[in-house]
Task: structure prediction
Amino acid sequence: MEQNILLFTILGLTFVTALSQLFLLILNSLKKNERSKPSDLFSPYYEKSETVLHDAQIKANKILTNAELKGIEFIAKQKLAMDKLITELDVQIKSLEEKLIVELKASMDKTEKSYQDYLSVLEENLKHQEMQNQRFFQEKTQKMIDNSQQIMSAFILDINAKVKRQIDEEFALVKNELDLYKKHRMEVINKNIIDILEKTLEQTLVKKLSLSEHSEIIFQALEQAKQEHNLS
Amino acid sequence: MDVRQIQAIILSKTYTKTDYLRRVTLIREYLERRIYKEPELLFPDYLNMIAASQFDVKALSHLDVHFFNLFTKDNLYLLINGLMDALRTLPVLTLYLAVILDEVQMDELGIWFRNNLNPELIIDVRCNPTIVSGCAYVWNNNYKDLSLHNFLSQKENIINKIIDAYAQEQL
Result:
């Protein structure tokens, strides 16, 4: 790109030089035509200026030629240098290319290897993560199950305790009622025990006791009443 | 000798109302026979003749000829009625027994009551099977219960304890 710019610059200069030469030639030709009518007052100055102009023109032409030659030389040198440079560049580029290719290969290999390593690491990590997740899932599930079991157990224990308490209360109530009933019945029985006993004895003693035994019992009762001063 | 004295002679071996009435009847019947039919009839022979019980014979054995000579044709029924009326003036002990005891036991009871309550009392025996055993009597309008029922009532607590102990042991 830079070479193209330089080339265009040189070509531009050359074109400008050529145009200026042409312009000068045209001017000269015009000036020659005008010399045919010089005035008498200005003729020495006119001749001097023409000489100067002529010298300047010649110098300008020389400069232009030198510049042109220099330009062409420069261009040629430039071209050679460019060719050399291009050749060197090609070589370097090639070597660089080869180097780069080698490096690229190496880098590709490295990359592939690292990628493989990365994949394997990733795979391992994934496996590890999967196992961790599985373990975590199992732990969570187990925890949930344990929690559920605990809650169920607690619930069942609570229900058991409540039911047991209710049953105990009912049982205590029933027991109280039974005790009260028993007590009441015992009181009734105790009140009637004398009658019951008397009736039982009436059934048995009357038939079993002899007259002498009856008489003995009567005298014992009378003696006891006498001792207790309870006769009358 | 007045009615009271005659009564006292009879009552010396007679303790119950029924015995008293029976024996006064026996005396009246003997005297009627002796006065109106057989003047020579002796009281023991009469008792033998009518097959009186040995108990009555024994109880009336102390009635001798002098006793019966107190009764004449004129005063027989007067005295007999007097003896019947005098029965009502005697202090009566109403005795309730579970069974009717024999004469000997009744005499023993009579002696015991006369020794301990009143020497002139006479016993009116009633049979009350509900007494079961022991006795009860009414004296001076006071009822005295010496029966099994009274005994059981007095010992109610002890009996209840015994029954409870038995129930706990056996049941």
In short: The two ends of chain A are 166 Å apart (CA to CA).
